[in-house]
């Protein structure tokens, strides 16, 4: 990649065929996802969920508007998830109408010049799945595999398929965990669940490969783990079941998805686990999610994933929760510069998908706004932000900031 300078700032040419796009997830945008365990939790009496998803962005009906906005900006890829709870509302009952709906989304992308990147599972499960024991059920892997077998029929001309979004987030028990907690290891992770999810992923990869010509892999939530000097061993132990195990499981896949937003510091604290500094230096910037403003996380995550897997990498999520769109551009510019540096050092990165296309439901609240497009909560009117056109301009020119 050779550096050039333009009025927009210093850039380098992206590799030929580099993918540019944005991402969403079904539960966070579709609305009315009533058959999921998340919906049950959101509306349960005395729920701890601050705000229910409700109609979300009404993308179940307005996905055509979302795809058109993305295409008009110059971005060429749309990552979205299909909803297991809609496709299989009861065990063994497959909704042909739901499959037709998601096929219609694919068909809306293709003539618009947008490449669909389909995620088979993005956090939400049918309510019946959780009632039967979830990943602890003895037939969990078989149930997930049968769902994938039903879903792949609509994916014949999809080039990229993600089996499971952030599997490592599905096994992390939040809060103080000790090694005496049932099912948890010494660093607070359910290893049985991790192994079951890995087995489900491998089975899904086999199904996708047998039925389509798509590249298939999964996306891991990378947290750019860094150690306070002298805490390197603790960092490595803490990171293994939260990230590295899942990267290892991808080694036979066609690609690995990297999702990076922040870093996690490992060092002495007063909490029960003894990991993660509890205070930040004066002047530290934070996002609307309370995360440290740290755009270098993307480059750090890509370098670590490249070292551990050697696989082609697709950045499947990266972004910032902010009400200031200029800050979004600032953050994304710095993140992409770190990505370009990692690529110059040898990481094989095939594309960048921003999180998120829309301001959407962020698992308990609409307040953290990650979107390139604002969505009115009452009318659902979409309003593109300057960041959408800024990112689309990079895509049209085929360049990365440095």
From TrEMBL:
Entry-linked PROSITE patterns: GLYCOSYL_HYDROL_F1_2
GO annotation terms (biological process): carbohydrate catabolic process
Keywords tagged on the record: Glycosidase, Hydrolase
Molecular function in Gene Ontology: beta-glucosidase activity
Alphabetical list of Pfam families matching this protein: Glyco_hydro_1
Cellular-component GO terms for this entry: cytosol
InterPro entries: GH (IPR017853), GH_1_N_CS (IPR033132), Glyco_hydro_1 (IPR001360)
Family: Belongs to the glycosyl hydrolase 1 family.
Name of the protein described by the UniProt record: Beta-glucosidase
Lineage summary: Bacteria, Bacillati, Actinomycetota, Actinomycetes, Propionibacteriales
